[in-house]
Amino acid sequence: DILARTGHVSEAKEMYGQLLTDNPADLRTMLSLAYLLYFNGEYEEAKPLFVKYLLFEPTHQEGIVFLADSFSKTGEREEASDLLSSLERRYPSYTPALKAIAMYHLTGKDYEKAISYYERALKIKPDDIEGISKLADAYMAMGDSDKALAVIDEAVKRYPRDSAIMVQKGNLLLYSKNYPAAEALFLSVLEKD
Q1: For residue 151, which of 119, 190, 174, 177 has the smallest C-alpha distance?
Q2: How far is CA 117 from the centre of its chain?
Q3: Which of 22, 26, 148, 173 is the most buried (most CB within 10 A)?
């Protein structure tokens, strides 16, 4: 894990591979290597490890989400949809799954469904800043900058010190061609940091 976290990805992959060769049933190593490959953008290589891991741990919700996203990122949208639908049926309040389903719909340009799933996730976990940000992104992708700005304005009221939310608001102001307000906001963020 230390190798991967310090940027030595090749060495970490080699080490995990050797550990799995020595002990093919080491689930922790299997999952660690699957995550490493996923976060390194090696989705094709990560998929079989997630599949194998899930054979032993079929209720591992996060593993299912990452496998579904790996399928989606490699163009296997039907497999991703099947996994996410099954996960939603079993765990209807699991917000990472709801957000993954929302992202699935967002990348498929079904903006209304994406918004619906982000809103469901935020009803369960209203303080999820990432979910709030992604909801605004979905409104922007749909072409509704006013609703996107309203979502972000509400987030700014709740989290006035969150630089990422402030920057997102600045970007929305730029998109809306409100250049003076965007400039003032960006300068205030720079002064805070």
Answers
A1: 119
A2: 13
A3: 148
Nearest to 21 by CA among 12, 31, 30, 8: 30
Amino acid symbol at 136: A
- Mapping DSSP to helix (H, G, I), strand (E, B) and coil, where does residue 32 land? helix
Selection from 144, 102, 137 nearest residue 121 by Cα: 102
Tokens coding 87: 């996960």
Q: How many angstroms separate the CA atoms of 6 and 190, rounded?
A: 28
The residue behind tokens 């909801």 is 135
How many Cα atoms are found within 13 Å in the side-chain-facing hemisphere of 119? Answer: 11
Q: Are 62 and 96 in contact (CB under 8 A)?
A: yes
In whole angstroms, what is the distance from residue 187 CA to residue 184 CA?
A: 5
With CA atoms as reference, report the closest residue to 103 among 56, 138, 61, 60.
138
Q: For the whole model, what pTM was predicted?
A: 0.84
CA distances from 101 to 34, 65, 84, 94 (A): 21, 9, 6, 11
Mean pLDDT, the chain cut into blocks of 10 residues (193 residues total): 72 92 94 95 97 96 96 96 95 95 95 98 95 96 94 92 90 92 89 72
